[in-house]
Amino acid sequence: MAVTEADVRSALDGVTLPDGESLAASGRVSKITINDGRVICIVAVDASESRALEPARVAAEAAIARLPGVDRALIGLKPNVTPGAPRSGAAPASPRAAVKGRATTAPMALTGVKHIVAVSSGKGGVGKSTVSCNLALGFAAQGLKVGILDADIYGPSQPKLFGLSGKPRQIDAQTMEPMEAFGIKVMSIGFLVEEDLAMIWRGPMVISAITQMLRNVAWGHLDVLVVDFPPGTGDIQLSMAQQTPLSGAVVVSTPQDIALIDARRGIAMLEKVNVPLLGIVENMSSFCCPTCNHVSMIFGHGGARAEAEQLGVPFLGEVPLDMRIRETSDSGAPLVATAPDSHHAQAFIGIAGQVWAALMSGGVVRPAPRIVIE
Ligand code: ADP
Fold first, then answer.
1. Residue-wise pLDDT tens digits, 129-175
2. Which of 89, 106, 197, 333 has the highest count of CB atoms within 10 angstroms of its CB?
């Protein structure tokens, strides 16, 4: 028997919030979507409460997953702001209002593609490509149709991560067919030109190459296209963020201060072009020694979560530093595809679930800071 909204609400009745109130009665459940045994609920929270409400979120997912007819349950915590509400310093008119001296029109949507999500990082080497790959696979694990565009033009990693080589088929003079692995459509500059050649391209050539990979590829119908952005916050990234019809962006950071400073720059860049920030992922969060199981915090721990709380943006989850993640990434056998039940794959799937829930709720925007006059 198909699960109904009433069933979901009664399951949520048994989930208690830290103040003792039941989640169903709290009035926080703002949206329930049921689709072929997949249930997505959006729960409104104050950004500062996300951490305290995490156990309730997990309990709510488990309660819904126990209902007959439910294959997968996702609860997204959404900071309690009106989607699209103007942020501090943002122009109130169009969602992508003018950045000084730049084009003011919103980029043209990509036919057939419902959402485009950028994965960005303030600097290289923090695991942005690894997260992009496993995030794409995490979306697919929810039954979504997914593509990935490797826009990291100076260091394309997606061919290796997906174990793909060769050249994409040319369908006609204009259009290429994306490559495919593990059910994900993949396009990368790495399929098209030698790495050394791309390395010498200047800004306009890079933008033109990425635009072609976005628009002259037969993506077909996709629920999500993940775009692995080039690291950093220079002009190329800024133009790309502005010219791509993004539903939002995920920022990847390692926990230590220096990486977070770069992540902050990345967040500021997204703000500048009014791209909604869907949340922050902390990669290489902790290290569990494979021989003695001792957990060490090589790069510190919790920095990205604290930063997300301070900025009032969702913290999407932690991914540990683990040899298997490195090995599976380098051998083209990404964890979410090859060991979906493993602890680390589940971390990626959980992150994908939260991002999808945020997209379903119309995108998460950062709440305007409260101004207190003393
Ligand atoms: P970026 O795209 O930010 O430059 P990559 O995703 O290419 O970073 O990752 C850099 C290196 O770190 C790769 O060798 C990758 O396999 C490894 N790596 C990334 N995340 C993890 C992790 N959580 N655990 C272990 N190795 C990781």
1. 999 999 999 999 999 999 999 998 888 999 999 999 999 999 987 88
2. 333
Phi, psi (rounded to 5 degrees) for 198: -60, -35
pLDDT tens digits along 85-132:
333 333 333 334 333 333 445 677 888 999 999 999 988 889 999 999
Please write the tens of the pLDDT for every residue from 320-354: 888 899 999 999 999 999 999 998 999 999 999 99
Ligand 1 pocket, mutate which of 319, 329, 336 (most atoms under 8 A from CB): 329
- What spacing in Å lies between the alpha carbon of 285 and ligand 1's midpoint? 12
Tokens (6 digits) for 244: 């791509």
Question: Does ligand 1 come within 6 angstroms of the Cβ of 183?
Answer: no
The domain boundary residue, chosen from 52, 79, 106: 79
Q: What range does the domain containing 325 cover?
A: 97-373
- 54 shares its domain with 119: no
Q: Do residue 348 and residue 281 come from a single domain?
A: yes
Closest C-alpha to ligand 1, atom 23: 321
Structure tokens at 156: 């394309």
Same domain, yes or no: 33 and 181: no
Query: Does residue 183 sit in the same domain as residue 308?
Result: yes
- Cα-to-centroid distance, 271 and ligand 1 (Å): 26
Which CA distances in Å does 201 have to 193, 233, 307?
A: 11, 17, 34
- Residue 315 falls inside a structural domain: yes
| Contact criterion met (CB below 8 Å) for 186 and 164 | yes
* Distance (Å) from CA 259 to ligand 1 centroid: 14
**Domain co-membership, 64 together with 171:** no
DSSP state of 86: P
**pLDDT at residue 131 in the model:** 97
DSSP 3-state helix, strand, coil percentages of the chain (rounded to 5)? 35, 25, 45
CA of 176 to the centre of ligand 1 (A): 29
